[in-house]
């Protein structure tokens, strides 16, 4: 059973202020916890159900400290409606300094507010082998439990940086090609873009801010064939990145 | 103000059984209600806030019966956390019989359970001009409020049919090419598929059922370049459909 103090601590980590204060975050569900255990993150707590323990005895036997609890304890402490697997508290890690090389392809996000969208974009980045995601400071927080769970484990591989996006882009606009997704850009299907440079996606409702758009070299649109006015930003990211990656060497 | 009886009625429509009994469903938020008003759906109720009325006076003046209410009334009756716009109750409509022509491109969904995924897929279909989506009977319900809201208005254009998917596919396997998304299929980037036939996407966790896969002519995989094990099913739909549509005439 989880003590009241531990439940209170875990619950506090749903709030960014307390996550930053404790430099810790929560990981829930079988897939995400398994990825966490196989990554370099340091654990503060690991709670598993009997079912999860039986299925992953060998892995958990590799020196992890864990406590067996009931599903109802995991649900009480966490954010999932059901969780018959595991919940961990991990320490945030220090990112290496952000550096781009000439052959890098990075995703930049301007004011992506929805945690599910951010998490899904991180998962897409990981699928396509893009390990640097640069966020404006107003984006959803990487360590938000909903972001972590939507990444389906990709949070262990993709590095997400928060910074002053217009200023950072301005420093890179000469050396790197900067693409921006927009409804009035060049037709993606008529381009053969190489996966190099920086691809900027903008806010769910408003798109890319003018001060960010000012740093973009080429606007791209996904050609529309029907009646929808727009696509979800994670959907758009996936389509554009896939079009770039089909030209990867 | 909304009467208790009306709130109770609207709330009952969150449940499929009552939606079917009353042949009615709920539409929430500015974008979705605006699309509804410009579609052929028959309205049972239309509640708008003062703000929405002021912004759309001309449209609402075209003979709609509506009632002005407060945001808190819309939130109380509906499923949104905030809604300073509108909420409507519309009557379900009869679909025309499902018929494919040789040049049609349709999406078939096998056991897509998550309403957000189904709604997002409908929005993607609408973007690419695909107006027939065929669902196995175990898919999320089209009229679920979360499906409706995730389509961002595309529910007014895309026709979604529910049927016995393996049996239906079996009837079409000779005349139409049937593609299926899978992690072990042919590399999508090495194909130049024309947007004709039927594209099948499977359950979020388990993929396409064997009895459905048995009707598929060609399995397709989205090439992976990184560490993620899979993509969200709506993301995968978008990427595959985009690859087909780049070869549209």
UniProtKB/TrEMBL annotation, chains A, B:
Gene3D superfamilies: 3.30.1330.30, 3.40.1280.10. Residues 105-241 form the tRNA/rRNA methyltransferase SpoU type domain. Pfam families: MRM3-like_sub_bind, SpoU_methylase. Residues 6-70 form the MRM3-like substrate binding domain. GO terms for biological process: methylation; RNA processing. It comes from the Bacteria. InterPro entries: Alpha/beta_knot_MTases, MRM3-like_sub_bind, Ribosomal_eL30-like_sf, rRNA_Methyltransferase, SpoU_MeTrfase, tRNA_m1G_MTases_N. GO terms for molecular function: RNA binding; RNA methyltransferase activity. Keywords: Methyltransferase, Transferase. The keyword Transmembrane helix does not apply. CDD domains: SpoU-like_RNA-MTase (cd18109). Belongs to the class IV-like SAM-binding methyltransferase superfamily. RNA methyltransferase TrmH family. This is RNA methyltransferase. It comes from Pontibacter oryzae.
